[in-house]
Amino acid sequence: MSRTPVVLVSLFLMSCIIPTDPNIPDPANTPPVVEEHSETPMNRFVDIDLAAPSGPDGGAMSQERFVATVRDPDIEQALEGLVYINYDPNRPRPITFFDIPTTMSATRRVEFFVDRTIQEIVSGGCPILELHVSRSFGPNFQPDDPDDIGKGRWFLRIQPADGSEATCQRGM
After folding, report:
1. Number of C-beta neighbours around residue 37 at 10 A
2. C-alpha to C-alpha distances, 52 to 8, 40, 61, 120, 166, nearest whole angstrom
3. Which residues of 145-159 are buried (b: 16+ CB within 10 A; e: fewer)?
């Protein structure tokens, strides 16, 4: 009997079989969470007096500043932010949008500005400001993954420039 078949069988049995397509799933994405920041606490009234001279030069400010903390354990993932006033899921129309770059930290400080001259602010009353955060938004400003969204909310109490009183209820 020849040794060739025995050698070939031995070599085959000692070889390591490597699959050509290892089927390793991508890790699950964790949705971001929008948390309040001490500079502009959420879920309560934020008073905006359109007549108040509060700009650095003593004139009226043209924008209102908001700050939030976004927590996302996917630290290498860039995020996007959309800001709404009186959000309507059937007709989403953000008033501003911005990128939230990676910081290599699970928490990111997010600062955005709302123009005080837009109609929803100028008309006074008590609009609701919402920040929506996701890794990406698609058509109609909906997140590409419906489960990948974090939201923060502020209740605005607008004091009109004519000095009339805003009629929001206190206590939120």
Report:
1. 17
2. 90, 18, 8, 18, 14
3. eeebbbbbbbbbbbb
**Looking up tokens 């993932």, which residue turns up?**
77
Instruction: pLDDT tens for the chain, 172 residues: list them.
Output: 566 666 555 656 555 566 666 677 766 788 999 999 999 999 888 888 887 765 556 555 688 899 999 999 999 999 999 999 999 999 999 999 999 999 999 999 999 999 888 888 777 788 999 999 999 999 889 999 999 999 999 999 888 777 777 777 654 4
Give the 3-state secondary structure of residue 159: strand
* Per-residue tokens: 127: 């609009």
Rg (Cα) of the chain, in Å, rounded? Answer: 27
**Distance from chain centroid for Cα 94:** 12
Which CATH superfamily is 31-159 part of? Answer: Macroglobulin (MG2) domain (2.60.40.1930)
d(Cα 133, Cα 41) in Å, to the nearest integer? 17
